[in-house]
Structures are given as structure tokens and as C-alpha cells.
Amino acid sequence: MFEIVKRDGLARIGKFETRSGVLETPALLPVVNPKICTVTPKELYEEFGFKALITNSYIIKNTPDLKAKAQEVGLHKMLDFPGVIMTDSGTFQSHMYGEVEVTNEEMVEFQKSIGTDIGTVLDIFTEPYWTKEQTAESIEVTLERTQKACDMKGDMMINGVVQGSVYPDLREDCARKMAVMDVDVHPIGGVVPLMEQYRYLELVDVVMSSKKGLNPNRPVHLFGAGHPMVLALATLMGCDLFDSASYAKFARDDRMMFIDGTYRLQDMQSLDCNCPACRGLTLESLRKMGSKERMKVIARHNLYQITDELALVKRYVKEGRLWELAEMRCRAHPAMLDALRRLEEHQEFMERYDPISRDGAMFYTGSETRCRPVFRRYMSRIWDRYVPEMSKAALFYDEGSKPYSRALAADFDRVRRSGYTPVVVSPFGPVPAELDELYPIAQSLFPVIEDIETMLEAESSTVEFLEHKFSEVVKSQDVSDDGDQEYDADLIRAKAVSRYQFGIEATDALFKGKIELVVSRKTGKIRNVISDGEHVLSMRAGDGLYTLRKEGADRIVSAVPSPFMRVKVNDDAVPFVSEGRNAFCQFVTECDEGLKPMDEVIVTDKDDKVIATGRIMLVADEIRSFKKGIAVKVRSGSGDEA
Amino acid sequence: MFEIVKRDGLARIGKFETRSGVLETPALLPVVNPKICTVTPKELYEEFGFKALITNSYIIKNTPDLKAKAQEVGLHKMLDFPGVIMTDSGTFQSHMYGEVEVTNEEMVEFQKSIGTDIGTVLDIFTEPYWTKEQTAESIEVTLERTQKACDMKGDMMINGVVQGSVYPDLREDCARKMAVMDVDVHPIGGVVPLMEQYRYLELVDVVMSSKKGLNPNRPVHLFGAGHPMVLALATLMGCDLFDSASYAKFARDDRMMFIDGTYRLQDMQSLDCNCPACRGLTLESLRKMGSKERMKVIARHNLYQITDELALVKRYVKEGRLWELAEMRCRAHPAMLDALRRLEEHQEFMERYDPISRDGAMFYTGSETRCRPVFRRYMSRIWDRYVPEMSKAALFYDEGSKPYSRALAADFDRVRRSGYTPVVVSPFGPVPAELDELYPIAQSLFPVIEDIETMLEAESSTVEFLEHKFSEVVKSQDVSDDGDQEYDADLIRAKAVSRYQFGIEATDALFKGKIELVVSRKTGKIRNVISDGEHVLSMRAGDGLYTLRKEGADRIVSAVPSPFMRVKVNDDAVPFVSEGRNAFCQFVTECDEGLKPMDEVIVTDKDDKVIATGRIMLVADEIRSFKKGIAVKVRSGSGDEA
Lengths: 642, 642
Description:
The structure is a homodimer. Chain A is of the alpha/beta class. Chain A has three domains: 2-261 and 305-345, Queuine tRNA-ribosyltransferase-like (TIM Barrel); 367-487, 3-Layer(aba) Sandwich (Rossmann fold), CATH 3.40.50; 514-641, PUA domain (Archaeosine Trna-guanine Transglycosylase, Chain: A, domain 4). Helix content of chain A is 39%, strand content 21%. In chain A, a hairpin with a 2-residue loop joins strand 1 (2-8) and strand 2. In chain A, helix 7 (132-152) runs parallel beside helix 8, helix 8 packs parallel to helix 10 (200-213) and helix 21 crosses helix 22. The two termini of chain A are 33 Å apart. Chains A and B meet through helix 14, helix 15, helix 16 and helix 20 of A and helix 14, helix 15, helix 16 and helix 20 of B.
């Protein structure tokens, strides 16, 4: 059973329930060689805090004494590891050394017999150099074997490995078929050669095409990925589990992992590492050590590099800033930069899961930042939902490090009085003045020195948009100061934000009849929208977006047909939710497909009666597939969310 | 006495000789408050390895008991610190709290009386908001006081602080005047407000304009810079010394420094820090601690963040990859990215000190990488020194992650046979085939997915170059395969590389008469150039550039007038250097101004007689000003450098 606790990009902080305890994801599973434990499983658990590991059932099966022991006392006892144990099946051995002489059934049976928590199908490793035909055929075999494993698994969990070499369509198709099988974890397999050859660009396509097909309620394991350098990117793409054999493999030939790459001891100029393993050691002292002792130190160093980076990745997910971290990390190698740039191809898919808002500022780290879905979403929303207040537009080019700036307010007023809509050319594209306080516009930081790429994109998207929306466009300085047109800037903003957030139809319903705006005396910002005496909306100071009130919800429900903005729950949930308790996935019967995480939603009963309002935590297909977790954070009708 | 050991960009690993020992730079000096030592000087020295610190003589002078003690036992004994002690003069206090009631003379005298190693003039802190006039006037005062301090200093070293607010011309002018005074260290002052306000773009102009005027043989101290986030960039710009009061100041209000910024304890989601100070602590346990104990932990954590980053910066300088690190670090905040982009304005100045070659690949981290001087140098060299083998050019667009690719060799042959020079359009600009193995072309890694900025730049620079150099330009695929032109690719390359490295005139001298090329059987690469039976050049496999042989040097000396490629030494050095010993700065009487670090040079005696060849470590103005250190790494006439 898997549950999402926090999210950012496609990344998820999750809770994965297993027979041997709950595993928090993202998690990395160190690979333990049952024959030589460079670092003992107990140390991994206690000193490093690894609550799960992988070992290889194929090797155990082929080593008589290990086999006997494992079957007698069980894997956990044999390895003296209280956490979650996953076993590999020999697939990787077949990749390394050609065919293996066991059957899938034997391997599944054996893994069960030694008490593995999560076993693996004997899938077929699809090599990057394989033809499409060859790949497609082998996937068929993998799927059959996976079905068989599901039938046999009993109370052992099963890894249903997505294969497909470098063919996105095959990967996605294989993923879709895995998604409907009774597997428990979705590893993405056959990617080690890509990483070894720095083919990160293709890795992105492989992971993203797999993600498109997979069932969101199962953790995704990027098989063989364990270098600290890739953790931020892989987590951003929605991988939940990782594993590392390298920490020990590298240690054997004196290679030390660092966040910016792997260095050979003999090439290093100095050590200067304060990790608990290296603390107090110099390059010289480490080189002088006995090889066995040195191997242990380096293995432990490598593990600390991994745990530190994984902890950092989690911190950034919790802060909603994982994009920033991934963009920094991907500068470590041009091939990683390619991966980052490749994400632009997958912007549309990522946009579906991208939260509508986040805490804190968005940092622009380079032209690659434009690959983020938030850019795409903003443009598509103003195309579909923006209605000009005045038919003519006056262009502003702001020199500030933000697309908008308070300093412009006076100029805005001047052009408005002359009947023009002020539009600022920003890295996001065109920003009509009335949208300049909502997320992400007001919460983003850009460098003052723009790159050509961003400038050109801003220019062209602005021109296109203005031609589409306005009858005439002039430069703001060309607008004379003698206009006398009446206008209400606050009302214009109040409506524009509502359209941006809820669409035109819902906004017409919310802004019916006489409109009063409650404006904060301190900040001059809109606080509440009262329509015909009903308090329908409250604006959040943090992101300039609205909180929907019960009265507003009623308006929308009567004006816009279901399932728009609705999350419908069954009768069991109605009494609780209407009291203000959260709505959980398993009680949801229907959900608007267009909703994004953190969107305002209306919770209704089967008769489309409003029973609560709140913010949605998951998107429709997630809610459908998850058996646990909060679907809607419900707001008690009375007070507003800050 | 200051000496450069290793360099990269404007960064230098240096040795700074003081009364209290030799300090390796770059170095950071923790600020110790003589009244409250959050971390004791002894701990700073022994546990953290800080060999120098700063304390404030103004505070000591105004605290009777401290003053008495300091004058009685001396500063080193009072603080129990065996390393180098620098004292500040009260200038910063005047910035914080307005005027201070001491004179410059009093402060200098007092600093001497307490045994300071490096004292500071009571200079005037030029605020960023000051007018140019106000700033210029105060600089005059600072200069007078500095002259006075130099007259008084005795055996105490003196900080001659460069001021000038945000006016580059005033900064440079002030620096030039400091450069000719008898000061020992060149701090750049008045920059703390810029850093506090994230005005890194202006910080770059301030530092670079100061560097232009300063005397290269003195360490440059960026006063008040101590956040790990800025160390890579500041070191790249040629700052050698830093200081940090923040490690303790931040600790007092529960702020923890990390490489990506500073975080308030109350805002943090988790700790997960394995530094020796935090190891074993959780966020909760840290919060629960007594404030005094917590302050100590956080201060030590902050110090470890600083030492770790400084060690990393040094490692990257030694590896010749500091640009890569700075480019990664500057992604932490858009204002830092602005600083990085601003460096393009200073490309020309930086190019003068940029090594002609480096070990290992150059990594492209984003469009900002084009700010590196190596791009500018390459373009200007091919403009000035490239001579087309054939008057027509055929264009190649390579899809690889490198600007050239072996796969093209066959095509190169085809177009050459038809009388065209193959030219590859690369991120560096146009790359004629014969230059595709020299540094930086062959040693650089670029992403496959190009950014528009780089593409446009490559295009336009290529078009310009081709029009200038060739009579006709076609696409390579338009060249038919029926050419029968004779050509010698190796000879073409051998000459082209020589022109790129030594210029046209020298190349004519080196390639006189009958030319034989020794080509490696294994790699097919040129090894030696024999001209009229004389072995004049050897090509290095590593960077595709030449090593100059004695015979080649003689040719150049007789063909090209002095000081071209010469480093002239006085008679005292002749016997040693001609035996193959290195040439030291103090013996050099003349030096070609055009030489770059690591360039091949000819060491001559006063009569322009060749006594050795080698590689130059410093540029002309450095050699002139340094009293210590190797000017030329001499190669014994017999063997070649690998």
C-alpha cells in the first residue's frame, strides 16, 4: 500500500507499507552482496538509517550454504536486517554474463521460500542496442512471466519491471500492461547501460514514457540508479526508489563518489572531506591504509554522499523547490544538462501533476528553467481564460528582476485612464497588469541580465497573444497623459484572477449583481469578494489566488454542470466531510479531470449538493487508483485558509 | 611576500609569508570578537584548521581591561592563537554606527603595540548610495591615511583598503594608487551592503575594476565576504582572502549556513546534516537545546560549511575547473546568476590571465559558459592567425556532443579532394578541420541539445569569419565526390596549429625547407615536426598543442625580433637556467607582454641568445611585480614534456 504525503514536480514523499514496516520514499536501497558485506546490513540500518536493502536471490540460490541458511532461518535473520528486503532475480546477471539457467517460476518460488519482502520477476533485460522487434518480443515474455509471478506471489510483494530498451512507445505500452497487473512495485529496468554511457537524454525519455503508463499508486524504482548526481533529477521525474551497488563496487577500486562526480583516489589532489567516514583522514593517510580498511572507509564515504544528497532532495521536495535543486545538479555534466533540457519535451505531461501554487519564491537558474511546466500553464491559461478589460494594450518593458514592479503602478494608471490595458513583457510571456500579483508571476525571481533565449520567447509569445486578444498595441511611453476613462483597478483584478483560476463561466457566476471588495488597509490588496451580499471568495496574500467559500461553491454548482471543480464522495463520507473532515481517496466516486494539485475544489454528495470546499491534494487519476491518503484537504465552511 | 603556486581563471593558490607563518591562499579568516568567543581561537586553529583570524583592534582599544592585557602580553598570547592575526581598525564600526572618535595614527600605533601581524588603516567606508563626488573626496582621505600608515607601520603588515562605492572608475583609480604604496594586502572594502542586498552584479564590477588596478603580487581580501555561496565566484575573480563574522552572528539568531543559502532553524523541515557539528543531532534535538549550547553547535556547523566549500574551491582550482564550480554555485540565486553573466563584460581582462591550456575536459554548464575567456581567445586567434589551406570552405553541422567528431573524417577527405576546407560550426564558432584536435576544441563537452543563444552566436561568428577568410562557402553535402586535388592533411594541421599557437611569422621560420612529420603509429597523431633535418616541435597528445624545441627556439629568435616569445634573464641566472633549472621572477629583466600562462617560451640572455625553452607560469606584469616564484618552468633541452 502506497500513499503520497507531499509532492513537487512529479516527485513524491510517500509512505510505502510493507510486511517489514513502512518505508518513506524517496528511498535508496543499498545492494548487499550476500557473499561479501563491505558494510554489514546492521550498520546500514543503524548507522546510515537505510530502512531497506536489496540482495540477490540468484546468487543465494546458487551458493549451497547460503541457500540452505536462507531457507532455514529466512533472509532477515541471515542478513541480520530488521528492515525491508528486496531481492533481485538474476536478470542483471543475464545482462552481465548472458543467459541464466533458472526459470521464472523457480526464482519466484525461491524468493518466497527465503522470506523476501519484495521479490522480482525474472524479466528480460532489454539492451539499449536491441532492435525494436527484438525488444517487443522480449517484453511479451517479461509480461507473461510477470503475470505468472503475480499468480504465485502469495503474501510476497512483486516487482513488475518495465522494459523496452530506448523505445518510448514500447516503454509506455509495457508500463500500461504492468499497471493493470497485480504487481506492487514498478521498477524501470534496463537503464544501467544508459547511465554508464552518460546517455541521460535517453534516460529521461525512458523514465517519462514509463511514468505515463504506470499506475500512480505504486512506487517507481529506477533500477541501478544510485549516484548522488542523478537523485534530484530522477526524483523530479517521479522515481521513488533507487539502489546502489556502486558504493561498494567503486570502493573496491578506490573510487570516491561526490555530488559532482566520481573521483579516483590516485587522481585526487586532496581529500578535505568531513563526512563521518573521512573525518580526520588526509589523502595520504587514506592511500597508506591497508586495502581492506581503505575499501571500508570509501564504501562508507560513498554511502554518506548518498544519504546526504537524498536528505537534501527530500528537503527540497518538502519546500517545493526540487526543480531548483535538479537544475543546479544537472550542471555537473553536459550530459546531465541534456537531460534537463530534454524535460521540455515532457512539459505537458508534467503540467498535469504540477501544483497550482507553492510556498516561497521561484528561482530562475538559467534558460533551462523555461522547461518547467509552470511556464506552459501560465501561457495556456491566459490564452483560454484572459478577457481584456480594455480593447487596446500598452506594452511595458520592465528592467527589474521581477516581471512586474510596484514602481510601474503610476504608469499603469496613466495608460488605463487613456483606455489601454497595461501589459508587461516578462520571462513568463505577457503579463496584463491585473495578473501581476498571482502565482507564479509575483513569486518568481529572475536575473536582471536576460538570456537571448528567454528574451526571444517572451517577445514572440507576447506579440502572438496581443494580436489575438487586443485590437491595438502601443508602447506605454506613447500613451499620452490626458485620458479620462473611468475604471476600477481592483474590480478588474478581482475578476481577472478569478477567470485565471476558475475559468470564465464560473467567474460570471461568482461576480453576479452588486460586487463589493474588501481591501486590506495595510497592503491595499484585495481580501474578500462580496457578490450580492454573499462572501464568495477570499484572496490569499501569499500567492494572490482565491480561497473558495461555501457561498461561492453554491454559485458554481448551480451555474456550471458537474463534474466541473467537483470531487464527489459517497454517502459514507458525507457526514464526516460536511463536518469539515478531510475527504479520503477511497470515498471519492467522481472527480473533475482538469483539477491540479492544490486547486480549490467543491466536495459534493451523489446529488451534486455542496457539502464542503477545500484544496485537492491529488489529481483525478491518482485519486482513482489510490486506496489511501487525503484527496481533499477540507476547509471548515466558517474560517478561511490563510 | 606573496607567491603564486597554482592558478585558474583569476584564482590563485598562493603562499603568503607573514611574521606568524606562511598562509596558503585562498584562505578565510574567521572574525573573533575579543569579548565573546563563540568558538575559541584555539579551536579555530586546531579543530577547523584556520591558520589566520581577524579581530577588531578598535573594540580592544575601547575596552580598558582588554587593551591593558593586549598591550601587556600581546594579541597572540591574549587570544591564545599561534597563527596569523589581522586586525580591523574601526572602519566597519563607523559604517555601522557613524563616526568613530579615534585618529588613523592612533589606530595604527595601537595595532603595532599589540603585535598585530596585519593591521588596517582607518579608511573611510564608501557606502553604495554615496554620490561620486562624496566618494572621490573620501578616497583622497583614505589614500592619505594609507600613506601615513605605510610610513608608520614598521614590521607590521598593512591593509591598504580599496574603496570607491559602486563606481568602477573610482575603484580602479584607487586601486592603482594603492598598488604603488608600500601596503602588504589589498582588501576591497565597502562591499558588505552590496552582498547584504544581493547586489552581486555590482559586486562583480567592483571587484573586477579593483583587480585591474591592483598590484598582482599582493593578496586581495574581499572584506566581509564569508558565505560559502560566494567563495567560488569570488575566488574565480582573483580574491585570495575572505573573512566571516556571520558564522557566529547567524548562530546567535539560529540561522544555519548552507552552500545554497542561509536557513532559519524555525523554517527548516529537517536537519539531516552530517557535518562534525550536527552529526547525530535531529532538528528537534537541536531546537530543544539550551540557547548557548545551540549557538555553539550552529556556529561550528557554519564554520564547517565554510571550510568544506573552501576546500572544494581549492580542489577545483588545482584541477583547473573552477569555472565549472562557480557556474554551478551561481545557480543558487538569480542575483548570483547575474554576477556570473556580468563576467562577460570582463572577458577581455580575464583572458590576459587565462592559461593557454588545462588538463581534462571543459564542461559546458549553460549559455553562461560562453562568458569564459577561452571562447574569446579562440575567436580572436583564428581571426588573426588562421590561414586557409584552400580558398573555399565547406560547412559541417555536427550533431555530436563535441564540436568535431572522428566520424566526419571521411567527409573531410571528400571535401578536401574537391578543394574545400572543411569547417565545423561549433559552440566555439567556426572550427577548420585542421584545428579540431587542439585545446579547447577537442577537450570540451557540450550538451547535444544546444541553446538558442549558443546556436545564434556560433552561426553569426561563423558567417563573419568565413566571409573574411574564404572566397566561397558551400554546405558540405553539396560537395561532389569526384575531386582529385592533392593535399597533405597532416602538414596542413601541423602548420595551422603552429600558427594558432605561435603566430604566422614564427611558423614560417619553423616550417622552413623540407618538412618531415613523425606520426604516431598507434593514434595517427602528429608527434614531431622535423624541418630541414632539425627537430623543431613536438606535439602534446593531451592538448594538441606544441612543445617548442631548442632548435625551434633558435629559428624563432633569428626570425622574429625580441621580445616576441622571449623571457630575458640576467647574467646571474644564465648558468643555472641553461642547465635546465627553472627561471625565477626576480631574475627576469624582460618579458613578452603577449604571453599567457602555460605558453611555450624562449629563455634568453641579455644578448638574446637562447639558453632554454619552457612554459611560462605567470604573465609579464606578474613577473615584473613578484619577488618570488617560478616565472618559467624550464625544460631541459634534451627531453620533451609529455
